[in-house]
């Protein structure tokens, strides 16, 4: 072997290699590219139809865009590692990917303030329902392949993640039970759930409790999403039901094996900490953080629609409500069965699912 080879030869198994990926020397440094960030920003602003009220604001947003672009570039260099595996030659292994998306002109704290929406005020953990360990559970689940998941939606600048997470779980249950996949109304929850604050943030348990008390929920087409607080259409809430719901259950907290049993039955809502820029710009692979595993830090609700493993690494598959421009076509894979009980980004801290 030529001594000039720039690659480290490792006779380690893939799993430990991935764990050590951040410790291994990354690609050799390249010449810094010419600064074309103005052009990139203009292209990006056109793509997402961004306009700003003033020149000052535009300059401020350009600065943030540039910082985000640089952060993304630096993170990529850190997380891709070129290695020689067995006799297969150099391979680039990327554990998690980040990339520019529609949220490019926002700092992580601004982003969390505008696009999440879990408000924990008044939240008391519900009595958990234990699922027996011997319950049937396949090694991989993807409710999309059973047609139990609607297309990825976009909550817009409304703190309604809780409504989207609840609806995705109800849509899944309804399809599994009736064989029909019907897109259901987040707006009804935004307008009518008095336990939540509409576009000011809310909770999955109050939303599911409302739907259970009324016996069902209206379809998306009958009660479409506006992304603003509106007046509750009581007739639709009471009488126009396109999926029926009888109640909801809480998965025992901080127990990924119970969560797995629940997800094997149907899609399940979870709360996560989505406040880091790596989560904001996640674009694929298995996300392991940074994010907080502290249940007190969760700020966003998503719906787990499956689990599996790739390259020997286990993950949860979750549907988000940030359009299919974010993540893996709108989804995120979160590391599963981690060393701490609350799970990646505290996802195991308070999962719920509806019943019929
Ligand atoms: C069920 O399985 C989990 C994980 O394997 C284990 O920790 C738990 O003790 C089991 N519970 C019972 C009641 O056997
Ligand atoms: C959280 O919800 C409570 C109760 O609905 C509400 O009074 C409060 O204003 C909300 N907090 C925020 C930050 O919106």
Automatic annotation (TrEMBL):
UniProt keyword annotations, A-Z: Disulfide bond, Signal
Keyword Glycoprotein among UniProt keywords: no
Coiled coil segments of this chain: none
Domain annotation Peptidase C1A papain C-terminal: ranges: 137-355
GO molecular function: cysteine-type peptidase activity
GO BP terms: proteolysis
Signal peptide: 1-26
Residue ranges of domain Cathepsin propeptide inhibitor in the record: 41-111
Similarity field: Belongs to the peptidase C1 family.
Protein name: Uncharacterized protein
Protein source organism: Lolium multiflorum
């Amino acid at each position: 072997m030529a001594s000039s080879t720039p690659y480290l030869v490792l006779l380690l198994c893939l799993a430990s290699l991935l764990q050590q990926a951040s410790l291994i020397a990354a690609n050799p440094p390249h010449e810094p590219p010419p600064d074309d960030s103005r052009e990139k920003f203009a292209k990006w602003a056109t793509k997402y139809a961004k306009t700003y009220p003033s020149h000052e604001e535009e300059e401020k947003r350009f600065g943030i865009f540039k910082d985000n672009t640089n952060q993304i570039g630096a993170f990529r260099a850190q997380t891709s590692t070129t290695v020689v595996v067995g006799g297969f030659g150099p391979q680039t292994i990327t554990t998690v990917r980040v990339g520019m998306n529609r949220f490019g002109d926002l700092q992580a704290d601004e982003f969390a303030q505008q696009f999440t929406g879990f408000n924990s005020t008044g939240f008391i953990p519900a009595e958990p329902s234990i699922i027996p360990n011997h319950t049937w559970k396949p090694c991989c689940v993807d409710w999309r392949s059973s047609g139990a998941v609607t297309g990825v939606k976009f909550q817009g600048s409304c703190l309604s993640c809780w409504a989207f997470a609840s609806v995705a779980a109800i849509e899944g249950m309804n399809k599994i039970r009736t064989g029909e996949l019907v897109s259901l109304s987040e707006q009804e929850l935004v307008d009518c759930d008095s336990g939540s604050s509409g576009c000011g943030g809310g909770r999955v348990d109050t939303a599911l409790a409302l739907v259970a008390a009324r016996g069902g929920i209206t379809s998306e087409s009958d009660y479409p999403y506006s992304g603003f607080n509106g007046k509750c259409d009581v007739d639709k809430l009471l009488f126009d039901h396109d999926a029926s719901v009888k109640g909801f259950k809480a998965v025992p907290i901080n127990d990924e094996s119970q969560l797995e049993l629940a997800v094997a039955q149907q899609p399940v809502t979870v709360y996560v900490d989505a406040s880091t820029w790596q989560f904001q710009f996640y674009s694929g692979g298995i996300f392991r953080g940074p994010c907080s595993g502290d249940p007190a830090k969760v700020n966003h609700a998503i719906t787990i629609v499956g689990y599996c493993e790739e390259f020997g690494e286990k993950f949860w598959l979750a549907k988000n409500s940030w359009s299919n421009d974010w993540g893996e076509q709108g989804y995120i894979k979160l590391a599963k069965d981690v060393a701490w009980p609350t799970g990646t980004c505290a996802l195991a801290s308070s999962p719920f699912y509806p019943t019929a």
